[in-house]
Amino acid sequence: MPRSVNSVASRARRKKIIKQAKGYFGRKKNVWTIAKNAVEKAMLYSYRDRRVKKRNFRSLWIARINAGARANGMSYSQFMGKIKANNIELNRKVLADLAMNHPEAFKAIVVKLK
C-alpha cells in the first residue's frame, strides 16, 4: 500500500506560518523551521504583552494623576482617598486625561475635594 502524506495540508500549514513571519529579518522569514520558532515565540510575547500593556497604562495614569494632584498641593494617595470617600465615579483613565489635557477641570475636582 502506498504511503499517504497529505502534502496539500502540510503545504498549507507551512504557508500559513511563513505568511505570519512576513517582515522578519534574515532566515526567520523564509526558512520553515526557523520561521515556525520565531512565529511561536512572537505569539507567546503578544499573548503575554496584552496583559502587560494594561499594567503599563495603569502606571502611566497614576503618574499623570500624581503630577496633577501635586501641582494642586495634594499627594496621589490623599487625592484617590478623597475621590473614593466623596463617591466620585471617575476612573484613573479619565482622571489622567483631565490632569494632562484639561488642568482647569482637574483643579476644579481638587478644589471640590479640599
Compile the SSE list and pairings.
Elements: H1 7-20, H2 32-71, H3 76-85, H4 92-101, H5 103-113
State the share of residues found in helices, binned by percent. over 70%
CATH superfamily: Ribosomal protein L20, C-terminal domain
CATH class: Mainly Alpha
Uncertain spans, ≥5 residues at pLDDT below 50?
A: none
Give the tally of β-strands.
Answer: 0
Q: If you average the pLDDT, what whole number results?
A: 95
Q: How is the main sheet built? A: none
First and last CA, distance:
87 Å
What's the number of helices? 5
Give the class from helix and strand content and strand pairing.
mainly alpha
Q: What is the CATH T-level topology? A: c-terminal domain of poly(a) binding protein
Radius of gyration: 26 Å
